[in-house]
Amino acid sequence: MKNLLEIKSLNTYYGESHILRDVDLNVQTGEMVCLIGRNGVGKTTLLKSLIGLLRQKKGDIYLIGENINRKAPHQRARKGMAYVPQGREIIPYLSVEENLMLGMESLPGGLSKNKKIDPFIYDLFPILKDFLQRKGGDLSGGQQQQLAIARALLGKPKLLLLDEPTEGIQPNIVLDIENAINQIIKDTGIGVLLVEQHLHFVRQANRYYAMQRGGIVASGNTSELSQAVIDKFLSV
Ligand SMILES: Nc1ncnc2c1ncn2[C@@H]1O[C@H](COP(=O)(O)OP(=O)(O)O)[C@@H](O)[C@H]1O
Ligand SMILES: [Mg+2]
Questions:
Q1: Closest C-alpha among 189, 104, 178, 119 to residue 145
Q2: Any idea where the ABC transporter domain is (predicted)?
């Protein structure tokens, strides 16, 4: 069976500073995989390397068996990778509806062929339907995060990359987001690579990888997540 995502010996630098060190990681179709680790260890750097905003110095990235090392971010998006950056970067002065439309740009034919927002998104995040005409910037932090995830899903990705989607968000919306991610995996069989600090959300994942100083130092099934691993990699 082909891996949905396979990373081999990835090394990424910012100028002279060596951040990612020989990272090996894989995600299968239908799987939720969580990347854990303290602040500053390189989790965001890994996701940016995967979507192509940063280029690795060494190593390989395969999406559904194809090497995508040389592909630009928009090409990776077309091939089925979606990325929700840390800090929910929605466009504040556009309406919710316009923000959602932007998610359809990576579909075949782009926005000229795709003019209707697929309503499955309102089953996942009902609040977006009520707020379609509001400005993105007028939503609460949790609602903006839901909007950012919905926008990514409208590109019909095969692999969704989520960078700390529940950071700074009210607990009830954290649960809504967890449920939506579980639901979309169940309904569509996509794979999800999640960077997360909330233990409850981490436990929803099938497997975890723990990062320290840019390297993967532990991994396994989240059902076997030990207190030692939690204390070492999740407590801030
Ligand atoms: N644009 C940048 N230029 C230089 N160093 C950076 C830049 N962004 C992040 N770093 C450094 O790279 C390391 C990893 O950062 P990051 O991937 O954001 O960590 P995490 O997401 O795990 O908190 C940190 O030491 C950080 O200071
Ligand atoms: Mg980060």
A1: 178
A2: 5-236
For the chain, which domains are there? 5-89+158-233 (3.40.50.300)
What do you get for the CA distance between the two ends of the chain, in Å? 37
Residue 213 Cα to ligand 2 middle (Å): 13
List phi, psi (to 5°) of 9.
50, 50
For the stretch 128-167, pLDDT in tens is 999 999 999 999 999 999 999 999 999 999 999 999 999 9
Give residue 2's pLDDT band: very low, low, confident or very high (50, 70, 90). confident
**In angstroms, rounded to a whole number, what is the distance separating the alpha carbons of residues 198 and 8?**
27
How far from chain centre, in Å, is Cα 150? 12
- Cβ neighbours, 10 Å, residue 91: 14
Residue with the smallest CA separation from ligand 1 atom 24 is: 40
Q: Is 214 in the pocket of ligand 1 (CB under 6 A)?
A: no
Ligand 1 centre and the CA of 91: distance in Å? Answer: 24
DSSP 8-state class, residue 222 = G
Strands 215-221 and 207-212 turn out to be antiparallel
Query: Distance of alpha carbon 126 from its chain centroid, rounded?
Result: 21
Express each pLDDT in 17-49 by its tens digit. 999 999 999 999 999 999 999 999 999 999 999
